[in-house]
């Protein structure tokens, strides 16, 4: 089972518009971050995408991805869904729409804002067949588990995918750690976790919270993601133990 980190940046990416790198070294390629998204792949070739970031087209090209079995959304914030139209080329040549899943609230909001994606329009076919997660347990050979995580006034969905004897957890955009999260990510092989910055943030995990989730869940390995321009790759990686890696765009790991 393979994890691909398609993007690991915060909502403005790194650098921010204006070529603002903050304290990140602009000469380190791993500091150039697009908005967060991952793909997980099984040995049989099935592939799931989590979130459609505004940088989706560039991410698909950079990672040579031209087929998907499904998209799972964490929530409807712009940096997690506004690249949804870039799913259109992935629909070309398919017999039917791409499967898509999210929480009831995420599905409601996505339908409200991107109706044409889920219902077709003016002769164009439906791009995504969108469903609520409901009691979903399996899809395309992956075992799927999930829980809702506090993200300020809303919730973000955390996911755990298992296939081929491996497990990958994805916990982006959370501001507090719950018992449900610890249960979901218990002993996961790889945990990708929100880690916006060092200082506390009202809706995102800072470094201390990210490290706490990794420790309390018993994750075997972890990747820090959703990083802003105060999180220099080399500086942060030098502080981490061997089982915790600072994410970067294009990172690939086997679970």
Structure commentary:
Its EC number is 3.1.4.55. It is an enzyme of class 3 (hydrolase). Keywords: Hydrolase. GO terms for molecular function: phosphoribosyl 1,2-cyclic phosphate phosphodiesterase activity. This is Phosphoribosyl 1,2-cyclic phosphodiesterase. With about 260 residues, this protein is an alpha/beta fold. The protein has one domain: 4-Layer Sandwich (Metallo-beta-lactamase, Chain A), CATH 3.60.15.10. Helix content is about 20%, strand content about 30%. It has 8 helices and 14 strands. A 7-stranded mixed β-sheet has the order 6-5-4-3-2-1-14. A 7-stranded mixed β-sheet has the order 7-8-9-10-11-12-13. A hairpin with a 2-residue loop joins β8 and β9 (about 155-165). The protein is globular and about 55 Å long. The model has no long low-confidence stretch (mean pLDDT about 95).
